[in-house]
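Structure tokens please, single chain.
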Amino acid sequence: MHTQAPKKIVYKAPAKVNIFLKIVGWEAGYHLINSRFMRVDSLYDSIWFEPSDAGRFEIVGEFDCPMEDNTIYKAYKALMTAHPHKEALRFLKTHRVVVYKNIPAFAGLGGGSSNAATFLMMVNKTLEMGLTMEEMMEVGKSVGADVPFFLSGQTSANVTGIGDIIQGFDEAPLDLEFIFPEGIKCSTAEVYRNFRKNYAKAMPKFAEDAEKLATLPSRKILQEFAPEFLNDLYPAALKLCPELYEYKDPEHFFSGSGSTHFKVKA
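Here you go.
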């Protein structure tokens, strides 16, 4: 069992896109989704441990939130609550978590969730905790809806429930190009609130649409359906952030709650 990392290992925390995202229900205070997630290995944050004399849990990186709201911190608290581990606690007081950000915040690309998932994998491997993927996914789903997907190891998957039910979809990853609207930050909470207020009555229809989409390859989905149809949060985001209309295009697809758009490279 290690008390310190034998050498610096840099881990990649990849982004994801929602090929489609249908909001299909509401249960116990959570939105239920039916979505195709695709991991994007070409866009990632880098995370590593390095020695620290802080004597407390420490995260170093460019973040737009207090540490208590950081997904890595939430993953740390959730992990130590579910699986108390003296060596891990000791290690994380003598080693800081360093994050080099490439995935923009408020972008709908799952950067925070990917950071949390990667941190859980790093701790599990470095401290030889022996947690299974299922155990880590159980911890992860209390941190964020996208965390289980990043822990699953899937490149493409149909994701349902509150994001905790992952069914791999056998297909090659797409080569994607991103459009990052400068200065537009879409609050996930606000976009979902706007969705509930203006669009939630259509959820039974969205559920029907999702069942059909879940059977199709991602490339075919993006070739045959409009961006507004594929992402139920897109109209809510447009209503909340009208600046997004500048980026509206039949070939620009909206990921998550935004603001990133993506397209398939020619």
